[in-house]
Amino acid sequence: MGKIVLSFLLAMIVLCSVYAVAQERATASQVSADELSSTSLSGGHRAGPGANMQSMQDPRNARTPASGNSPSFREQNSVTRQPGTVIVMQNNMLDREKLEDFLKQNTPFKNGMSYFQEYVTPYNDAVLSYLEEEGLDDKYSIYQAAVSWIWVPDMTLTGKQETWLYPSQFLYETPSYSTNPVPGAIVSDCEDQANALASLLIASGEYDESTVRVAIGEVSLSGTSGGHAWVEVYEDGKWFPLDPTVGPYYDDGTGSVADSDESNTGYYYFKDRKYSVVKLWYYYNNEYFIDVSARTGNAPDNWEAVPSGYS
């Protein structure tokens, strides 16, 4: 009789232990699910028109920045803005080869286009909505909107040396990034601003794919050279630069925004002025692409010309 009672008690102890473990795992699973839901649904990013669907359906929005490319925080956040000029450049940018490798790792290759072209999206719903919401009905108003965007280095905004955003993300999501040092403002660095500006100009009908392009290359400011992105447009048989980074920029050293000089933000400011290009790397938009260094790609004949103000 005693053995039966003892066996019964041992069985009850085992059952209670199994139940307790099951309850603990269920609770842990619920916590993990709640945390995931909080991260996914309330991340604080305002989605633009059509952006939610694009983010869910488009695997390009799930990019992971290339690893091993991040220098120290202090190195990454140093910037150069040369007195007498208006361009702001982030020091320690990726060089040509590393930039190409970064995009290969982080941008799905689609429809036979280059990786760069994926980031010019003139027919995206968010780009078209931005034009309408901001009342941008000509190239001048588009450029004035662009030079109001605030330049912020990738390391400050994303914690990575290099992060490329689609125009929909740049225009509608960066204002509410928790890492945005200027909450509510549209912020990012040169390539995101250039890609968005080119997209808006094409979407507006002011230009088409044969007469606006993004340029990426090496520029020199105050004896410092580094990678930079800007836009070129073609008028009267000539190309000339547009650069939205002539607008305000965030200074990590002071923790404040440095305003731009409005006299330097005119649409034709760079048409007859020197623009300190050391070497051109790439030209592209959503339809055409040229690797300038390798002299490969496909584009109209007028893309062979470069602005006269390049040094």
How would you characterize the overall build of this protein?
The protein is α+β, with helices and mostly antiparallel strands and about 300 residues long. It folds into two domains: about 1-40; about 45-305, no CATH class. Helices cover about 35% and strands about 20% of the residues. The chain is built from nine helices and twelve strands. A six-stranded antiparallel β-sheet has the order 7-6-5-10-11-12, with helices on one face. A two-stranded antiparallel sheet has the order 1-2. Strands 3-4 form a two-stranded parallel sheet. Strand 8 and strand 9 (about 255-260) form a beta hairpin. Helix 5 (about 125-135) packs across helix 9 and helix 6 packs antiparallel against helix 9 (about 190-205). The longest helix has about 40 residues, at about 1-40. The model is unreliable at about 15-80 and about 80-85 (pLDDT under 50).
Q: Could you name the key traits of this structure?
A:
alpha+beta; 6-stranded antiparallel beta sheet; globular; 311 residues; 12 strands; 34% helix; 2 domains
Please state roughly what percent of the residues sit in beta strands, choosing from under 5%, 5-15%, 15-25%, 25-35%, 35-45% or over 45%.
15-25%
Shape: globular
Q: For the CA atoms, what is the radius of gyration? A: 25 Å
Strand order of the largest sheet: 7-6-5-10-11-12
* Count of DSSP-assigned helices: 9
Could you give the count of β-strands?
Answer: 12
What class, by secondary structure content?
alpha+beta
Low-pLDDT residue spans: 13-78, 80-85
Structure summary:
By secondary structure, the protein is an alpha+beta fold. Helices cover 34% and strands 18% of the residues.
